[in-house]
Design a protein that fits this description.
This protein is α+β, with helices and mostly antiparallel strands. It folds into 2 domains: 132 residues, no CATH class; 141 residues, Heat Shock Protein 90 (2-Layer Sandwich), CATH 3.30.565.10. It contains 7 helices and 12 strands. Strands 2-1-5-4-3 form a 5-stranded antiparallel β-sheet, with helices on one face. A 5-stranded mixed β-sheet has the order 7-9-10-12-11, covered by helices on one side. A hairpin with a 2-residue loop joins strand 9 and strand 10. The chain is rod-shaped. The protein starts with a helix and ends with a strand.
Length: 384
């Protein structure tokens, strides 16, 4: 899967998962909260029922003094009777820190209910009922809610993956069509470009003919097409390309690539200032090194001012190329490193050069730094 496809898929999935799980988390929370209150209401109702039972017993005793008082007692439920001054009269327990302003309240794992008597019976004004909160239904409710979230998460993750595949399918098909077109086009371009360059070299070497300036223009155009062909082929075959990584004389290769671009440098009347140490050796595949150097050199030529300096430096631990041309706005420096992105639309190109450089740099774990000032120039440094 290409980087653009991965980015699109990840963005879609991020939006999908965040929105879906937020919705289900909210729904689960509402369901859990509602059921929790329902469970609490059921247990509160039990306290209220027991308080009514005691209230009825007190009323009957108040009406018929001859009847013996049988204080209603229920296992696991405590009760206490208080007078109008909220002083303790009688009960199965004697609570402390009573919250008289609440009908129901909770302290620790104990649930309390204050039942007000009216009219008063035998001086009793309040009945306080208490029982241990039954946490088992709430624990079961929590387990069910978490299980629901997990099952829903798995289901919607699988669904999201397939939706994501459907989402990027048109883009993937378009990219495949473009890649097929590029592959066919580059294949067709290779033979005529090679023929043109070979014949130009033969004419220049063997014959003294008129139209030298025109020949140079043809050579420049052909070399530009040749470099574009090599870049497109590299992008197409990059992942399947068999690399021969060995100790390469980077100094000699750099001089060869400068010679390759000499016609373009002369055509723009650039003042080349090389500072190249001899016999700098790097463990790198030659084709990777060529693609990296060619794109950096061609960009420095393309975006430089006419008759300006072009500095190329190679030292033991870095390569530096510096032009004094258009420059790049700071906010565009990261943008131009992405495939098909260009900061300057007035110049030609497809926006693939720095993407290729970035791939090579990442593969060999080099460092890649671009510094630029608008209308003053750009420095690109590769460190290893």
């Amino acid at each position: 899967m290409l980087q653009s496809e991965k980015r699109s898929l990840f963005r879609f999935l991020a939006i999908y998962f965040v929105s879906t799980f937020s919705l289900f988390l909210l729904a689960t929370f509402i369901f859990y909260d509602f059921q929790k209150h329902h469970i609490l209401d059921t247990q509160k109702k039990e306290l209220f029922t027991h308080a009514n039972t005691i209230s009825k017993a007190l009323r009957q005793l108040n009406e018929t003094f001859s009847m013996p008082l049988v204080y209603p007692h229920k296992e696991f439920i405590n009760s206490a009777i208080f007078n109008i001054d909220k002083s303790y009269i009688f009960g199965t327990f004697q609570p402390k820190d009573i919250e008289w302003n609440k009908e129901y309240y909770q302290q620790g794992n104990q649930l309390f209910h204050i039942h007000t008597l009216y009219p008063y019976y035998l001086g009793a004004s309040y009945i306080l009922i208490s029982k241990a909160l039954d946490a088992k239904p709430m624990d079961n409710l929590l387990k069910v809610s978490l299980l629901f979230l997990m099952v829903a998460g798995i289901f919607f993750s699988v669904l999201g993956f397939f939706l994501g595949k459907l989402f990027i399918a048109p883009m993937k098909e378009s990219i495949q069509n473009i890649n097929s077109f590029i592959e066919d086009t580059t294949h067709e371009l290779n033979t005529p470009i090679s023929t043109i360059l070979t014949n130009i070299e033969l004419l220049d070497t063997l014959y003294e003919c008129e139209g030298k300036q025109e020949m140079r223009r043809i050579e420049i155009a052909s070399k530009t097409l040749s470099r574009l062909y090599e870049d497109l082929t590299y992008l197409k075959l990059n992942h399947n390309y068999h690399r021969e990584i060995k100790l390469l004389n980077f100094s000699e290769l750099l001089l060869e690539r400068i010679e390759f671009f000499s016609t373009l440098i002369e055509a723009k009347d650039l003042n080349l200032k090389p500072n190249i140490d001899k016999n700098i050796l790097l463990e790198i595949d030659k084709n990777d090194a060529i693609r990296m150097l060619d794109n950096l050199i061609s960009n420095a030529i393309k975006y430089n001012k006419k008759s300006a300096d072009l500095k190329i430096t190679l030292k033991a631990n870095f390569f530096l190329i510096e032009d004094f041309g258009l420059g790049i706005e700071e906010e565009n420096i990261q943008l131009i490193q992405q495939r098909f992105k260009r900061a300057n639309q007035s110049e030609g190109g497809f926006g693939i050069g720095l993407d290729i450089v970035g791939q090579v740099v990442a593969r060999y774990e080099f460092e890649f730094k671009i510094t630029s000032i608008l209308n003053q120039g750009t420095k690109v440094k590769i460190l290893w």
